[in-house]
Amino acid sequence: MSAWNDNVSSAPWARGGPILEFSHGQTRVAVAPRAGFNVFSIQYNNVELLRQPPPLVQSLGFNYGTPILYPTPNRIRNGAFSYGGRTFTFPRNDGLQSLHALVCDAEFTVESVAADVHRTVVSAALPFVPGSRLFELFPLEHTLRISLVVEDGRVQWTYSVDNTSRTTDSVPFGFALHPWFLLHAPARAGASLKVPATHWMVADDTLVPTGELMALDCDAARHFDLRSLRPIAEVNLDHVYFGMRPSAPAEVVDSNCGIRTIINSSAEFTHFVVFTPVSFDHLFTSDEPTVNRHGFFCIEPQTCSTDCHNLSQAQGGRYAEVAHLLVAPPGASVSGTTTFSFEKLHQEETVAQVASGGSLGEQRFFCALGS
User: Looking at the whole model, is its pTM more than 0.85?
Assistant: First the structure.
């Protein structure tokens, strides 16, 4: 059974626009097109999985739900980069850096909604055209398109950078999702994650990668190694990972709510950023919703490194491969896909069983499952 509606929200961050809500089986999704096409709520088996915005917050920004990061995911060193003989300057909102790009609060236009008993598909567009603030900052005429598919146990984003308008300019870009996953118990207990990358990216003290890599199978990288399922309480991270493959998806397992989330992406998504804060006091607002009380973490599929535009050209292109800057040439569209799949855990599983199907004696946890 499916259902969807487009209620107008009174929340300031919705900017007077509709909130699209979809329901398929155990999966309920809400998206705000005029607030960056942010999928700000995903409920599975009656459990909210994403950090919720306070009702009176003025902007979702990049702090709630699932912000879209484009065309420069995460940080840009000094808020500027050059490409094709031109320099682009973005607002500095993280010290000397520009953080999380341009579209988190942009007003997408919904072009179509199609629903049947099995799925809902929503298509939305964000044009970069002369006269707009987006074009003023990134003056390359093109359109970012998003297709969102909602099914029972599955939410999928497909981006397309459409450069088929009358232009002679290539569009250099990166794309990412920045989901704020909720924790469901104090002290970060009972939640684990897996990011089966091949390398951790060395960063400077501003969290911008230098281009150097550390293989995750060496002893020096032990703290950063997430290739097997690992309790979030063991790590304090705000780092970039490289070497993701479609055949090796990332996972989030929360034994408190009995849900496993599997994040599988197309080959364009070579990187992940993982943010696992130890304390949340500096991130909470005075009217933080109760559902957020235990905190949150972020595990972000990206098509590129942080600071990819600058890194791709550093030292004569030495780091171009690891930067993985994508380019939509004139007359072409470039696309990729990320899928979140959800499933209930068994009544009793070990961390090792979740990760590899094996057994680890008495190292068990228990999951309280819904109906």
Answer: yes
